[in-house]
Design a protein that fits this description.
The chain is an alpha/beta fold and 557 residues long. It is built from 13 helices and 27 strands. The protein folds into 3 domains: 11-173, Jelly Rolls, CATH 2.60.120.260; 191-213 and 507-554, Sandwich (Immunoglobulin-like); 217-504, Glycosidases (TIM Barrel). The strands form 5 sheets. Strands 14-15-16-17-18-19-21-22 form an 8-stranded parallel β-barrel, surrounded by 5 helices. Strands 2, 3, 5, 8, 9 and 11 form a 6-stranded antiparallel sheet that branches. A 5-stranded antiparallel sheet has the order 1-4-10-6-7, with no helix packed on it. The chain is globular, with a radius of gyration of 27 Å. It holds the Pfam family Glyco_hydro_10. Belongs to the glycosyl hydrolase 10 (cellulase F) family. Keywords: Carbohydrate metabolism, Hydrolase, Polysaccharide degradation, Repeat, Xylan degradation.
Length: 557
Amino acid sequence: MACTKGVVFDVNLLENSTLEDGLAGWAAVGECTALSVHNEEPEKVPTETINTVADDYKPSGRYILAAGRAGEEDGLRRAVAGALKPRVTYRVAGWISLGDGAEGSHPVRVNLRLDDDDECVVEGGAVCAQAGRWTEIKGAFRLKASPCGATVFVQGAPDGVDVKVMDLQIFATDRRARFRKLRKKTDKVRKRDVVLKFGGAGSISGASVRVMQMDSSFPFGACINGGVIQNPAFVDFFTKHFDWAVFENELKWYWTEAQQGQLNYADADALLDFCDRYGKPVRGHCIFWAVDNVVQQWIKGLDHDQLTAAVQGRLTGLLTRYAGRFPHYDVNNEMLHGSFYQDRLGDDINAFMFRETARLDPGATLFVNDYNVEGGNDPNATPEKYIEQITALQQKGAAVGGIGLQGHVTNPVGEVICDALDKLATTDLPVWLTELDVCESDVDLRADDLEVVLREAYAHPAVEGVMFWGFMQGHMWRQDACLVNSDGTVNDAGERFIDLRREWTSHARGHIDGDGHFKFRGFHGTYVVQLATATGKMHKTFTVEKGDTTLVLDMDV
């Protein structure tokens, strides 16, 4: 873990955040004409927070109203007390609402300005605020050097819209404390008590037993492409440490049909052959992509009927060719951030893509897939908006079978990730991290950040798998996220990943008791048991599946 010597955790660095001293220390920004303190009606004060707080904690109910705003740059500010330390993850917390009468929802952002420099601004979080309800801020930041001073700003929402701010806080997060909680949660979610029953109890009592886990029911995977599978160091790490694969580009429509009518499935076929050789299942990414700037020019030139025919042709061609080959499909990628097909073919087209995919390849699990949902910093991609999208698709007959969180993260906060997972879990759909890369130039911090994400994912019962969006330097979309250096050496982030996989693997040794039983607690997955008796050794495989009760298995000798 990165050094946090001298850091005091969970102490608010914004004085008078609960406004006990009125507006002392607070000031208006820009053309904002008035700041005033108000008390919220008791029944409207938020009652829950994602932060670690005392059982009797509740927000103060006092808030600042920033009125007379003439634009998005207008708002309020106050200085941060004390020195912010480098290489420490700070949380930005509190609640935001809009003034009475504001229509719809609007983004409100919390930023830090360092050393009174207008050019040195650090993003501290963003919410999609609305009148009549309080939205919790779930921001975070980290600095590379200690500033001489810092000021927090709350800005956003259009002119004429009043902004309310309650209990704004900045505090250092204690990752070690969070990890201790997650280890306990992991034990409950991913492990099970097992009793192996051996026949002939009297004759084999005291015999030596060894239990070894061969694989896990929780897969980790990585993206591959035609170039990296020619690299021996890449292949070695991939085959040793990953269970699944996903193609970086080779299945995307802009790759398989860059020019109209000129189909190229050879590259995808070659990658499938590679995965078949090593026994790696493959996620199908992606059938369509909703974002305008990744759509081929020839598609953009089609009229309504031509585009309809092209969409059907893509579905039929891809899914009949590869029926049964891809256990998962990302059907229309990033629909929270793009609407190319919907804008041209109507509101039903996204659900149609799901319905038709399910008809042509009924064995595949069909996913939505998007980014920033787990980060708490994108007003366009909140868990609530993702759930609304999923519900709307399901109401139109779309067989949504899974939720993809891409996981392109920087400076992650465990509580924020867990909050997003908790909300998405209410859909009763499995969640996968589908494109994980944790970006940080300092490889020690990158290892810590990676551990934050992986522990949150592994400890959450809704998550069923994690896919990395590459892992080798020089062969990744985001270069400061690699686990393996270009020369094949494993860096600290890669070692952290290996260590976690080792931690999440169970082995046990011991002896059969007088009842002919051997008991242990193990992670879900496939095992081999070796029994050594006077007459020789016996090997047998068994599987530990999810369950709340003790798993009792008969081992016939």
